Amino acid sequence: MEDRMTKIREALSAAYRNKETVPVGELWETRVMGHVRSLGIPLSPAAAFSALFGRFVWRLAPIACVLIVALAVGMAHLDYTPEYEITATFMTDPIGSTVDQIWGI
Amino acid sequence: MHNTPSRPSDREIIRRIIDGDTDAFAQILARYKDHVMGIVSRHVPYDHIEEIAHDAFIRAYQSLATFRGEDNLRPWLASIAVRSCYDFWRDRYRSKEVPMSSLTQAHQEWLENVVSDTSDRAFGEHGSRKEAREVLDWALAQLSAEDRMVLEMVYLEGLTVREASELLGWTMANVKVRSLRSRRKLQKLLSGPIGEGVVQWKTG
Asked: What 3-state class would DSSP assign to A79?
């Protein structure tokens, strides 16, 4: 069986090597070069990433601006004062008070 | 006495392209088209050779800025060409476009002639027959895209595992395992026709 497979392998390898190739014409080269020109200058991965990142950032910029304005308006209307809220939390915290008493503060 | 203009190196051409002279790519195309066509023609059907070679050159162009080799684009382009062929087969298998033709009486006779030939006749003679090509296409169509590529490169082309792994961008262990597996599959596929007639032959 091994011998027969070796013979078949040799014959199939010869068939594989005898495969026809296409003669390259000028038309094919012109088509490839046309495609190449349409792609522009090839960019390095870093440059391609920064170009993509730049496009992405600028696309999101108007949304970010609208969100900032909306949040600012919302905060102004809520009359939210963070310093007061934090102080109130410390003052009413029983655990914090116990710790203060232990340390004699 | 005339001074013949020196041939620009591959590295020099790449630099010109990246600096904006896209037409300089024509020199790379002219220099390596036969090399790439030769590789592609061994792996894909005749009708698709131009399309896949085109695709390989476009991929190479788009990746020129990442080329880190020495001054010779040949192995780098060979790797891109092989991967383009692999992608072609992967797409074909995925869309189930690989024809599953069956073997005929003529193919059986060709196989019997090959195995019974006791002379030292060159196997090129058997291999040049139309039936050889058809049996090969039939057997390869039964394999996966991965097994097909490895079988062609290692078993039929005679490349080493290392060479095949570099061209395909796979690990050597992966290529070794696939090579063994695909060879077993091929042996199983052909053991019917050359053995006890397990395969049902389509006559006429």
From this structure: coil
Contact criterion met (CB below 8 Å) for B90 and B145: yes
Is B160 inside a domain boundary?
Answer: yes
- Predicted ipTM? 0.77
Of B54, B57, B62, Cβ closest to residue A42: B62
Residue B119 is predicted with a pLDDT of 61
CB contact under 8 A, A33 and B17: no
Given B68, B94, B120, which residue is the final one in a domain?
B94
- In angstroms, the CA B201 to CA A24 distance is 39
pLDDT at B175 over 70: yes
- Residue B72, domain extent: 10-94
pLDDT in tens, B48-67: 999 999 999 999 999 998 88
Is A16 within 8 Å of B123 when comparing Cβ atoms?
no
Tell whether A72 lies on the interface with B, counting CB pairs under 8 A.
Answer: no
CB contact under 8 A, B135 and A12: yes
The domain total for chain A is 1
Q: Which of B94, B125, B146 is the last residue of a domain?
A: B94
- The single-letter DSSP state of residue B97 is -
Per-residue pLDDT at B137: 86
Cβ of A5 under 8 Å from any chain B Cβ?
yes
Instruction: Answer left, alpha or beta for residue B158, where phi above 0 means left and psi between -120 and 50 means alpha.
Output: left
Does residue B196 surpass a pLDDT of 50?
A: no
Query: Which candidate in B39, B66, B123, B143 is best for mutational testing of the A interface (most A CBs within 10 A)?
Result: B123
B113/B126: higher pLDDT: B113
